[in-house]
Amino acid sequence: MSSELRSNFLRSQIQADLKQGNVNELVTRFPPEPNGYLHIGHAKSITVNFGLAEQFGGRCHLRFDDTNPEKESQEYIDSIQEDVQWLGFRWSGDVRYASSYFQQFYEWALHLIDAGLAYVCDLTVEEARDYRGSLTEPGRNSPYRERSPVENRDLFEQMRAGAFEDGARVLRAKIDMASPNINLRDPILYRVRHAHHHQTGDAWPIYPTYDFAHGQEDAIEGITHSICTLEFEDHRPLYEWFLDKLPVPHRPRQIEFARLNTSYTVTSKRILKQLVDSGTVAGWDDPRMPTIAGLRRRGYPAAAIRHFCEEVGTSRSDSVVDVAMLESAVRDHLNHHAPRAMCVMDPLKVVLTNVEAEEQLTLANHPSDASQGTRLVPFSSEVWIDKEDFREEANKKYKRLVLGKRVRLRGAYVIEADSCDHNERGEVECVYARIIPKTLGEDPEDGVKPKGVIHWVSAPAGVKATIRHYDRLFTVPNPAKSDDVLSVVNAASLREIHSAVIEPALVNAASEAVFQFEREGYFVADRYDHSAARPVFNLTIGLRDVWGQQGD
Ligand code: ATP
Ligand code: MG
């Protein structure tokens, strides 16, 4: 079944609502709180919300759920917009902000007060906790619960005017302190918080809670399906209570699905922030981070991330997806799309004693996609090969260069090694070899075939580059479960080498272009640090899944 047609319960539900005429046009929203960078879990939510709108010819809003000013910032707002667009989605209309509805929320709070459905409560945080009861015990009514609407209105207006200290009073809904659902035990609607807001400045000394804001935001925007993750299932009765009691212009519907979790990954903004703040990683977009900005800098293509989010499906039961599935989506995509190039990580010089003039060879950029064209690769009398690709003696399993034996240089000639020099530590320093004439794209005429194919770079034309090799950031499959997440960070998750040599064409690689370095893996020109003067490539992913396997 094509992934576009893969069915899931959200799609079926929306299809039914459209068919029965419950809604005329699908309107969804992606509602991040701007308190961190988006991560792979958000990519799932983005593909669900924007993807459904696309599939059903509807609209999807980008709305910042910015009711918590102390933790939010413009940096996060900017990065979130950039990430959504980079993933390939466009929101309908302007970017929206919950904070632009603050006046409406305030008036709706007054509406509840006048209807006797909300009251100002003076209990301290500790007292309120005590009154709330527990999962097994009902709560008790606050002594302030029977304040009159007139008194409540006066106190709430004073809260709004900034008359009280942070935490002195809250506005609560008057629902049911004995409800088995704790969310309905007179939940808080507003808190006093003298905090500067990135959008509204100092206009508000009170801020609405998530619960009092979210459904009303959906109603104001005409959202038809408010798709969220399962932890909000118990909040749904409250979401609906507000819609029932307030004169909202529209009635949205909340539907929950299971969060995406992947192994060896944390998808909690709080923990990701801890990694950034502790200096464990170089920032929110460090290529080891599961943030969208990190994956991007790592060279993960947006299309592969979207494909993965679609492939994992959408369900109502929590599970952990093997991160190897994401890696494999990336590898598959790059195998088809990434041009090939050559980079020698640990160079060993080979002098080709029978080569005189430099020659420009024409190599295909992709073995099976001719549309990717060709490039010129200089070939000269001295080339670099990887130290791993030469041995003075070896058994038959070693299909690389050996003294007295032949190997093919990728896209170039078959060569045969004659001798080598050693340094004072006894290590091979230079290999002397000959090309076998007329072997460009042909087998040797004498019938002695090469053992294998190795990559190489012209010594005079090659350019030094910095290569960053990345490994998983965590040593355990479920890092968020450990008491101290910093203690399960993989200390060897970044290894930077400066000795690598790349073929000259790579110097002009566009920022963020991904290549398959032949026999090495997929590498991306670093978005920020790569330049022609100082080439820097990041490992995107190896050619095969070697995690947990011993090297041979
Ligand atoms: P975090 O736990 O990382 O702070 P959050 O849910 O608090 O995440 P929001 O900014 O509120 O972050 O998330 C925006 C939207 O993305 C919400 O609708 C949320 O349900 C959804 N979302 C967050 N994490 C995931 C996930 N792992 N899988 C699917 N959807 C997610
Ligand atoms: Mg949230």
Outline the structure in words.
It is a single chain. This protein is an alpha/beta fold and 552 residues long. The protein folds into three domains: 254 residues, HUPs (Rossmann fold); 141 residues, Ribosomal Protein L25, Chain P, CATH 2.40.240.10; 113 residues, Ribosomal Protein L25, Chain P, CATH 2.40.240. Helices cover 25% and strands 24% of the residues. The strands form eight sheets. Strands 12-27-28-29-25-26-13 form a seven-stranded mixed sheet. It has a seven-stranded mixed sheet with strand order 23-20-21-22-14-17-24, with no helix packed on it. A four-stranded antiparallel sheet has the order 4-5-6-7. Strand 20 and strand 21 form a beta hairpin. The radius of gyration is 31 Å and the shape is elongated. The two termini are 38 Å apart. The N terminus is likely disordered. The structure holds adenosine-5'-triphosphate and magnesium ion. The site of adenosine-5'-triphosphate has 14 residues, from helix 2 and strand 8.
Please tally the helical runs, counting DSSP H or I stretches of 4 or more residues: 12
Mean pLDDT: 96
Strand content: 15-25%
Instruction: Work out the radius of gyration.
Output: 31 Å
Runs in which pLDDT lies below 50 for 5 or more consecutive residues are: 1-5
Helix content: 10-25%
CATH C-level class of the largest domain: Alpha Beta
CATH topology of the largest domain: Rossmann fold
Largest sheet: 7 strands, mixed
Total strand segments: 29
Instruction: Assign the CATH superfamily of the largest domain.
Output: HUPs
- Global morphology: elongated
Provide the number of structural domains.
Answer: 3
Structural class, from helix and strand content? Answer: alpha/beta
Question: What small molecules are bound in this structure?
Answer: adenosine-5'-triphosphate, magnesium ion
CATH architecture of the largest domain: 3-Layer(aba) Sandwich
Strand numbers in spatial order across the main sheet: 12-27-28-29-25-26-13
